[in-house]
């Protein structure tokens, strides 16, 4: 009778080890890459805008085809530059730059001389 109990315990132990082996073999693993995190601060300064020029439409001079101006320093690559012509206007026009010279097409929808009571320029890096 003792040998039956030993055999039963031995068999139970073997089954237990087999279950543990299966459980360990099926455990998933994750690889997490090295990453960075941090906090900092920096001064935000504006740009000085100069030599603003409104290019009028050749056929209808009541419309503004483009606004050009220069920035005091070249914005970094990938910066967003937009202008709004007129305080009542809801349209922001996208600009392009070559070093410090900015050009903003204002034809879609057409900006008008009559509505051009202010020029807002936004440059974001």
Comma- or semicolon-separated keywords:
single chain; 125 residues; alpha+beta; 7-stranded antiparallel β-sheet; 19% helix; 34% strand
Q: List the uncertain runs.
A: none
- How much of the residues is beta strand, in percent? 25-35%
Distance between the termini: 84 Å
Based on CA atoms alone, the radius of gyration comes out at: 35 Å
* Counted beta strands: 7
Mean pLDDT: 86
- What kind of sheet is the major sheet? 7 strands, antiparallel
Helix content: 10-25%
What string, H for helix and E for strand, traces the elements in order? HEEEEEEE
* Helix vs. strand class: alpha+beta
Counted by DSSP, the helix tally is 1
* Form type: elongated
Description:
With 125 residues, the protein is an alpha+beta fold. Helix content is 19%, strand content 34%. It is built from one helix and seven strands, in the order αβββββββ. The protein has one helix at residues 2-25, and strands at residues 49-56, 63-71, 80-85, 93-98, 101-105, 111-112, 119-124. Strands 1, 2, 3, 4, 5, 6 and 7 form a seven-stranded antiparallel beta sheet that branches. A hairpin with a 2-residue loop joins strand 4 and strand 5. The longest helix has 24 residues, at 2-25. The chain is elongated. The mean pLDDT is 86.
